[in-house]
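To the wet lab folks,

You asked to see what we're planning to order before we commit. Fair enough. Below is the target structure as tokens, and below that is the sequence we designed to fit it. If anything looks off to you, flag it before the synthesis order goes out.
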């Protein structure tokens, strides 16, 4: 039976220049591979060692990139290794099969959202009315499924984020602060549901996962084993669970460690 590895991407396996956390002397810094270019500029990286580990993992397991990114944002990424058959985008809103969104899955997700939480338009209106232009740089709607703001983090009032989280909670939504982005996401829109569907299709009996943010918690809890890096929302909250390993590494070296753990578990714990 195959092993399924569902991993978050940004700040878990791939890193922007600002998130690399290269604290060692320059001469000892790892060699980096650019895996994303946007508007003709390099945007995301992993270490060359991590690139080889991901290639090995793609040969040994069913590797499923699992991201809150939209399909368009995901398709900018050029990961090393075999092309994944499955990918999870828009926090579970789209399940890609050979690069194409599965229409039946998407329709199922939309029906669930319509039944279980407040509509996107209500949340968008609240964000527009309550967020200050003094610290908001962009308002965005992702795939007609959820909303996010791009903010000036140093100007962002902590109290506003807390108040937004309470407001959203009462309407069946959740709030996550990741770098310069604040996400408002419907609670039924989960990476874990999509992971379970891929595991069913692939016939996987062992599921492994990794992630750094609040939006990854359900994914980690749904997997047989999970890992989180030493940075991000989950690390800041000291979040853990029985089958979750909290790693000490931060930045791009955490991505390398996570891939080592994936490979080790795939080779030693496969059914």
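Sequence we intend to order:
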């Amino acid at each position: 039976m195959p092993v399924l590895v569902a991993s978050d991407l940004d700040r878990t396996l791939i890193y922007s220049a600002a998130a690399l956390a290269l604290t060692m002397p320059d001469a000892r810094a790892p060699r980096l591979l650019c895996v994303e270019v946007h508007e003709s500029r390099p945007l995301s990286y992993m270490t060359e060692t991590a690139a080889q580990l991901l290639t090995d993992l793609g040969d040994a397991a069913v590797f499923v990139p699992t991201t809150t990114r939209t399909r368009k944002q995901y398709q900018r990424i050029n990961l090393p290794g075999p092309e994944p058959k499955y990918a999870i985008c828009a926090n579970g809103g789209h399940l890609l099969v050979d690069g194409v969104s599965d229409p039946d899955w998407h329709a199922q997700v939309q029906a669930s959202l319509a039944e279980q939480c407040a509509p996107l338009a209500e949340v968008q209106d609240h964000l527009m009315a309550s967020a200050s232009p003094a610290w908001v740089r962009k308002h965005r709607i992702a795939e007609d499924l959820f909303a996010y703001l791009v903010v000036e983090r140093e100007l962002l009032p902590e109290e506003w984020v807390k108040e937004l989280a309470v407001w959203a909670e009462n309407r069946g939504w959740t709030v996550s602060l990741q770098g310069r982005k604040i996400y408002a996401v419907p609670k039924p829109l989960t990476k874990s549901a999509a992971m379970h569907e891929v595991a069913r299709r692939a016939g996987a009996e062992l599921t492994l996962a990794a992630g750094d943010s609040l939006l990854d918690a359900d994914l980690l809890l749904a997997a047989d084993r999970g890992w989180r890096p030493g940075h991000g929302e989950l690390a800041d909250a000291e979040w853990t669970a029985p089958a979750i390993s909290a790693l000490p590494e931060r930045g791009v070296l955490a991505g390398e460690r996570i891939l080592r753990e994936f490979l080790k578990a795939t080779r030693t714990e496969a059914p």
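Structural context that might help your review: The mean pLDDT is 96. The two ends are 6 Å apart (CA to CA).

Thanks,
Computational group
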